[in-house]
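Lab notebook page, bench 4
Experiment: in silico fold of construct C2
Operator: M.H.
Input chain length: 102 residues
Purpose: comparison with the prior construct
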Amino acid sequence: MVTTSGIRIVPDPLTGDNYQAWRRSMTTALSAKNKLVLSWITNCLSRQIHATVLYVYTAKEVWDDLQQRYSQSNGTRVHHLKQAIASLKQDNMPNLDGLPAL
């Protein structure tokens, strides 16, 4: 594996006989890349949003979580919030009738 700077991340390509060493090298390299991308993503988040993904360990998981939360249209988000509030009412939670209408 070669980076854009031309420096090899993994010293030897997989030949079959060297799988264990190759696997270890790849795991180390990919872990480092994950940490780099994870820092890029989290450094571009507000404090409030960052706090919600603080304990997510992979860049892909953070990316997918943010996509699921924020890619929906407002209409879809409002619908899901209304469903969540209705569910709270049905689960014998405190009366939420005093909340403003969404």
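Observations: The mean pLDDT is 83. The first helix runs from residue 19 to 42.
Next step: discuss at group meeting.
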